[in-house]
Design brief:
The complex is a heterodimer of chains A (about 675) and B (about 325). Chain A is an alpha+beta fold. A five-stranded antiparallel β-sheet of chain A has the order 12-7-2-18-17. Chain A has a five-stranded antiparallel β-sheet with strand order 9-3-16-19-20. Chain A has 24 helices and 20 strands. In chain A, about 50% of the residues lie in helices and about 15% in strands. Chain B is an alpha+beta fold and about 325 residues long. Chain B contains six helices and 16 strands. Chain B has helices at about 20-25, 40-60, 65-85, 245-250, 280-295, 315-325; strands spanning about 35-40, 90-95, 100, 105-115, 120-125, 140-145, 150-160, 165-170, 170-175, 185-190, 195-200, 220-235, 255-260, 265-270, 300-305, 310-315. Chain B has a five-stranded antiparallel β-sheet. In chain B, a hairpin with a 2-residue loop joins strand 15 and strand 16. The chains are: A alpha+beta (about 675), B alpha+beta (about 325). Chains A and B meet through helix 5, helix 6, helix 7 and helix 19 of A and helix 1, helix 2, helix 3 and strand 6 of B.
Chain lengths: ~675, ~325
């Protein structure tokens, strides 16, 4: 009995190492260290006979129990007395390590295995990516093989056979899994309060812009959101995804400031573009849409500066549909907006203000002033770079008159300051620009590095007009995406394929495939919710089914699948497929049985053939021939005989189908 | 010592076991209605774990948590079918028990028919006459075995034989938790065969005198070469052709077959002679003692019981016949 337990141990140890390793990156180091210690102890006990706590070592046993209590206290203290998610997992990891030391009975092995299954799910609390899913699948395979090894007490199966059986069982699980996954009634919302995860390292735009922030974002490859236009997307230069609008300048940084209380002004426009956005969690309230969003989706509202604000913080991936007016014209500006769009901190940016005052003195109108500023960026030596020098004094003046290098936010902020100083209402808009179209999935990926900042100025008669000074300095950034503007050293692969256009195209294609897989994964696996289930059911023609009926349908379908599998398993026989002689012989015996001559258990082929030939004298020749062929194929390894046998059996009358023959022949038995 | 089969109890005379004999006792293969399944303790533990996972998945909205819970649910269902399949279609060609003396432990050889079927693993067989709970009862002595694919296989079980007579084997429990231990499948084999249990050889009465007067037991025999009467240890001078080479090959003991010439004095073991032993059972035990002793000494004997007389004879077959008659004394013939 203990043989199975000992042989299952390496599987168990391997699976636990795999399942705990992702936690090691997130847990305090001492938790991982304790687990590693116990793990190594158990491994050494198995390989080199180290003592384990137990009946034979009562001192160790006592030490272990004291340790368990100590650990509980340590975890409570370490996590500040709150038994939240992380503390719970720390306890679980330590408990699993401790339990490894007391695998006295089969029951303990089961408990540790089930703890392992549970640890798999705890990993999904943090990441649910495809690689993580694959890793956890491996864990499940190894854990289950451990269980199988435990139960294969006779040690009759090799490791390969055991793995194969586990994989086969898991494959047979798939139909039930799919039914349960898609049809199990999905409950909306949490059953109890979600823990406060805090703003732990979720990247995204911030509602403050102090020159020097966005460059960090620019290099992050993380997905911000995906957009499905239901076809070809607009060209990149039209893809301005509006985020926070910054009104307040305090001399060094820009902020949103207090909310403007008015409803959004009236907008004129004729072409409406509709699309669906899948937004990653970013712990903030704003939602992104193309300029300008026509109406807010449910659960959100549109502000006076056309930002979309969700009612709640976006803590999980959400999906919403939008319509945007692409040829928009804003018709009104309120007095409050006008005054805030002209605000400048007293005493800040003296040189910029002086320059703007000179321009204003020339009597230019708003549009001409903007052209003048853009021309300055274009014609003078301004450079687009992601590594601008850190400003020491007034950041705008330093940028405009000394450094002259910067990225979108420098250009946009400087432009806004110049416009305000010249008396043109202006505001700074942040968000994302561009995105990469994935032709495989038919969607646009917008990543954190696509973050952008631009300006908007109010021109009488035209409304708010977008002005993007970056487009003047680095037009390729706008037309072809940030990739062209970024240094090309990101990633080993891209470096290796730098000078090979064909390989580069292949690489892009692979990336697209991976992106499409990721999208399908997000939509169908991770984002499968109550709504999507309803939609799926509607598409299947089951409109408005309640829990009860859904449960009933699910039960019926699972029963059908289960029964089919039962029949399949019950019919599976031991005869290897590659023994055609035996198969042909069995078929012959079955046909004989239908003819009323059943082979007795004790009858070998020769005896049976002789008896059958006597009983069915009319078929005697065929029967004897088949018997002879079978004997030759079976015992003389005569391959030709096997082939001939199969042919003859096929030709042998399959008489059982005729009821008459059967009833007549029954009298022959005995 | 190999005792011949006594599976068909009607005739006490030993018969070589033949195929037809076995087949007459063959049970139908275990079909779907006779294999029971129920989750094991571990199965319930896993269900509990799955319920926790599902709660977590719903609460934290973890898509992969749902998948993990449903995958384990599916695995449990698939495991149930595999465990069930591990017993399904197992045939039993019957049971053969070697006769045993009362108070001993009978060995039951159960022949299992797995022809045309895949391998079965970790089957537990136990002789379980009483009722059982849903979970396996501890203390039941089980024999565990794997059965290779497409084969006949036999398992030897032990069951105590406290009283003489026919021992009905009753039910044999076969169960398995393979492959994952989450589900227990079991079935009952109820072979109709029974085992003959001989009376325990016991009693202190002296052996009755041999037939034919005052000669002491064995006086009329001479060592010779006519009738085989038994074995004894080798002594110098024994003929090499009397040496039992088979025994030598098995055990390193030089044993010679004893033959006697002339009329051996036969012991008359009778019901009346055993009367001082007491009641029926005591008498039967005394007679068994004598029969076994006579056989050991290589003496021929006859046995008479009320309504039954077994004429003088000796040797293994005779011994069996007499012991069987003692075992079945007073019981209905079939």
């Amino acid at each position: 009995m203990s043989g199975g337990r000992d042989r299952s141990l390496p599987w168990l140890l391997g699976a636990l190492a795999l399942v705990v390793s992702p936690h090691a990156l997130r847990q305090p180091p001492w938790v991982s260290a304790i687990f590693v210690l116990f793990w190594c102890w158990r491994t050494l006990a198995w390989r080199s006979g180290w003592p384990l706590p137990g009946r034979h070592h009562p001192a160790l046993m006592l030490a272990k129990n004291l340790f368990a209590v100590g650990m509980f206290v340590a975890v409570v203290v370490n996590f500040g007395g709150r038994l939240g998610r992380d503390a719970g997992i720390a306890l679980l990891v330590i408990l699993t390590g401790l339990k490894l030391l007391e695998l006295q009975r089969d029951r303990d092995t089961y408990i540790v295995t089930f703890l392992g299954y549970f640890l798999v799910v705890t990993n999904f609390l943090y990441t649910q990516t495809i690689p993580m899913a694959l890793l956890m699948f491996a864990v499940v395979v190894v854990l289950t093989t451990g269980l199988l090894t435990l139960n294969d007490r006779g040690a009759g199966m090799s490791a390969t056979e055991r793995l194969r059986l586990v994989l086969r069982m898991l494959a047979q699980t798939v139909p039930v899994l799919l039914l349960l996954f898609f049809l199990f009634p999905r409950l909306p919302g949490p059953l109890w309060g979600l823990p406060q995860t805090g703003a732990d390292a979720v990247s995204g735009l911030s509602d403050e812009l102090s020159l020097g922030n966005i460059s960090e974002l620019s290099l992050s490859d993380e997905l911000a959101f995906r957009v499905d236009f239901g076809g070809e997307p607009p060209p990149p230069r039209e893809l301005y995804w509006r985020g926070p609008v910054l009104w307040n300048d305090d001399g060094r940084s820009w902020t949103v400031g207090s909310a403007i209380s008015q409803p959004p002004p009236r907008v004129a426009g004729s072409s409406l573009r509709e699309y669906t956005v899948t937004l990653e969690a970013h712990e903030k309230r704003w939602l992104f849409g193309l300029d300008l969003v026509a109406a807010a989706p449910p659960g959100s509202r549109l502000t006076a500066d056309f930002r979309l604000l969700s009612d709640k913080r976006v803590r999980r991936r959400i999906r919403y549909s939008l319509g945007s007016i692409t040829d928009y014209r804003v018709l009104d500006i309120s007095a409050e907006e006008r005054s805030r769009a002209l605000q400048l901190p007293p005493g800040a940016h003296p040189r910029a203000r002086a320059l703007a005052a000179r321009w204003a003195a020339e009597g230019l109108d708003a549009r001409a002033l903007a052209e003048r500023a853009l021309a300055m960026f274009r014609e003078q030596a301004f450079f687009y770079t992601l590594r601008p020098p850190m400003p020491v004094g007034d950041p705008v003046d330093e940028f405009l008159f000394q450094a002259r290098r910067g990225f979108c936010e420098h250009f946009a902020a400087a432009f806004t300051v110049l416009m305000r100083a010249a008396g043109v209402p202006a505001r700074l808009v942040t968000g994302y620009q561009g995105g990469q179209y994935n032709p495989v999935g038919g969607f646009v990926d917008v990543r954190q590095r696509d973050a952008h900042a631009w300006a908007e100025i109010w021109i009488a008669g035209e409304g708010w007009v977008r002005a993007d000074p970056t487009a003047v300095v680095a037009p390729q950034r706008i037309d072809r995406g940030i990739d062209t503007a970024l240094p090309r050293s990101s990633g080993v692969l891209s470096l290796a394929f730098r000078d090979n256009p064909f390989a580069e195209a292949m690489l892009r294609r692979l990336r697209n495939l991976w992106g499409a897989a990721g999208n399908a994964w997000n939509q169908w696996v991770l984002g499968y919710s109550t709504d999507r289930q309803q939609r799926l059911l509607e598409r299947l023609g089951l409109e408005r089914v309640d829990w009860l009926r859904l449960g009933f349908i699910l039960t019926v379908l699972v029963t059908i699948v289960f029964t089919a599998l039962a029949i399949f398993l019950a019919r599976s026989a031991a005869i290897p497929r590659r023994d055609p002689a035996r198969r042909a012989w069995d078929r012959f015996c079955a046909r004989m049985a239908r003819l009323g001559v059943e082979r007795n258990n004790h009858e070998g082929p020769v005896d049976f053939g002789a008896r059958a030939a006597k009983v069915r004298a009319d078929l005697a020749t065929a029967i004897l021939q088949i018997t002879d062929l079978y004997v030759r194929a079976r015992y003389a390894q005569d391959a030709q005989a096997a082939a001939e046998l199969a042919r003859q059996v096929r030709a042998f009358p399959n008489g059982g189908r005729r009821g008459g023959a059967e009833s007549k022949d029954r009298t022959w038995k005995k | 010592m190999r005792l011949p089969g006594v599976s068909s109890g009607a005739s006490p005379s030993p018969e070589p076991l033949n195929a037809a004999d076995t087949l007459s006792a063959a049970l139908p293969r275990l079909d779907t209605r006779r294999v029971y399944v129920f989750p094991s303790r571990q199965g319930f533990m896993l269900m509990f774990a799955i319920a926790l996972m599902l709660l977590g998945a719903i609460n934290y909205d973890i898509g992969l948590g749902y998948i993990m819970s449903f995958a384990l649910t599916g695995l449990g269902l698939v495991c149930l079918l595999h465990t069930w399949r591990n017993l399904l279609h197992l045939g039993c060609l019957g049971l053969r028990g070697e006769p045993v003396f009362a108070g001993g432990v009978a060995s039951l050889r159960l022949t299992l028919d797995n022809r045309g079927q895949p391998a079965r693993r970790a089957l537990d067989f136990a002789h379980a006459p009483g009722r059982m709970g849903l979970f396996r009862r501890a203390g039941l002595e089980a024999v565990s075995c794997d059965i290779p694919a497409d084969s006949l296989h036999s398992v030897i079980l032990h069951c105590p034989a406290p009283r003489r007579g026919r021992l009905a084997v009753g039910r044999i429990l076969v169960e398995t938790c393979f492959p994952l231990g989450l589900v227990r499948a079991w079935a009952w084999l109820a072979p109709r065969d029974d085992i003959i249990v001989y009376p325990r050889p016991r009693g202190r009465l002296p052996m009755p005198r041999a037939e034919g007067g005052n000669r002491s037991a064995g006086a009329g025999q001479r060592e010779g070469d006519e009738d085989f009467v038994g074995f004894r240890a080798y002594r110098g001078g024994d003929l090499p052709r009397h040496i039992d080479w088979k025994v030598l090959a098995r055990s390193d003991n030089l044993v010679v077959r004893r033959f006697v010439t002339g009329e051996a004095a036969a012991l008359a073991l009778g019901w009346e002679a055993a009367a001082p032993a007491g009641a029926v059972e005591a008498r039967l035990e005394q007679l068994a003692r004598w029969v076994v002793d006579a056989d050991e000494r290589g003496l021929p004997w006859s046995l008479s019981l009320p309504g039954q007389h077994i004429p003088t004879g000796s040797g293994e077959a005779h011994l069996q016949r007499c012991l069987t008659a003692l075992a079945l004394f007073g019981e209905a013939d079939t």
